[in-house]
Amino acid sequence: MGIVFLGSEALARNELTWGQLRSRYRAIYPNVYAPRLAEPSLRANTVGAWLWSGRRAPITGRAASAIHGSTWVDENAPVELLWPNNRPPRGIITRNDHFSYDDVVEVDGMAVATPQRTAYDLGRHLSPAAAVVHLDALSRATGLAAEHVSPLLDRYPGARHVRRLRRALDLMDGGSQSPKETWLRLLLIGAGYPRPRTQIPVADEFGREFAYLDMGWEDAMIAVEYDGDQHRTDRARYAWDVKRLRLLDELGWLHVKVISEDRPAEILRRVGQVWAARRDSAHGR
């Protein structure tokens, strides 16, 4: 018997009594049980949702992206299924959407939307900002590109929220290494700046790459980076960051470091200042 199982099947096989089922296990969905002592997890919820569907509904959305290796997926995220059921239990979202066999792969015995189909559903059903965060993670984990999803747009021409999906795919960037980096990139784009390149390699005077900048504009030699907590809590990382910034400065890069306490207006003001400084230097001012 697996960690997550159907209670009716366990009882039918005489693996448990009703008393044991009630005392040792908790119901995560109707007729779907997990050990009481086991930590709740998205993985367990995903397996449970698939079992609840009678082992028939393909898993999509955030749960599918996690199966494909995406990070940043909330352990409490609802499990989305491609399934015509109007009354799913709490924690499951069912979508009566068309899909073909090409949209589904088998993972650990379960039906899971392909990365392309997962992206297609993420981009249509999540809010624009959340969709880009999850698409960035999926792209980083699988190498997915916007053109890989395009055939689905042609396959389902009447689907809802296609315009939202197209916009999210256009903004997708697998170079993002955290939700905060995605947020920062979208802030810059929304403010009218040219789309920044992510993970910009920088080489020293000997041609050895010593840094990969979160994002920026290579031609202008302007970098914008999000400074996560690990930069402050890891002394070795902190020391290297200081040295790294010195090297970037010596090479002529202008650098904006962003921390979690920075407000959007403050970030944009500082970015505007370095762009102005770069324009002034270009004109010999």
**Total domain modules:** 3
Number of strands: 12
Main sheet record? 4 strands, mixed
Order of helices and strands: EHHEEHEHEEEEHHHHHEEEHHEH
Uncertain stretches: none
Q: Terminal Cα separation, in Å?
A: 74 Å
Q: Kindly provide the radius of gyration, computed on alpha-carbon positions and rounded to a whole number of angstroms.
A: 24 Å
Question: Helical element count?
Answer: 12
Q: Which percent range describes the beta-strand content?
A: 15-25%
Shape summary: elongated
Approximately how much helix is present in the residues? Answer: 40-55%
Summarize model confidence as the mean pLDDT.
94
Q: Order of strands in the sheet with the most strands? A: 9-10-11-12
Secondary structure category: alpha+beta
Short description:
The protein is an alpha+beta fold and 285 residues long. The protein is built from twelve helices and twelve strands.
How would you characterize the overall build of this protein?
The strands form four sheets. A four-stranded mixed β-sheet has the order 9-10-11-12, sandwiched between helices. It has a three-stranded antiparallel β-sheet with strand order 1-3-2. A hairpin with a 2-residue loop joins strand 7 (about 105) and strand 8 (about 110-115). The protein has about 280 residues and is α+β, with helices and mostly antiparallel strands. It has helices spanning about 5-10, 20-25, 40-50, 60-65, 115-125, 130-140, 145-155, 160-170, 180-190, 230-235, 235-250, 265-280, and strands spanning about 5, 25-30, 30-35, 60, 80, 90-95, 105, 110-115, 195-205, 210-215, 220-225, 255-260. Helix 4 (about 60-65) runs antiparallel to helix 5 (about 115-125) and helix 6 packs across helix 8. It contains twelve helices and twelve strands. The model has no long low-confidence stretch (mean pLDDT about 95). The longest helix has 19 residues, at about 265-280. The chain folds into three domains: about 1-40, no CATH class; about 40-170, no CATH class; about 180-280, Endonuclease, Chain A (3-Layer(aba) Sandwich). Helix content is about 45%, strand content about 20%.
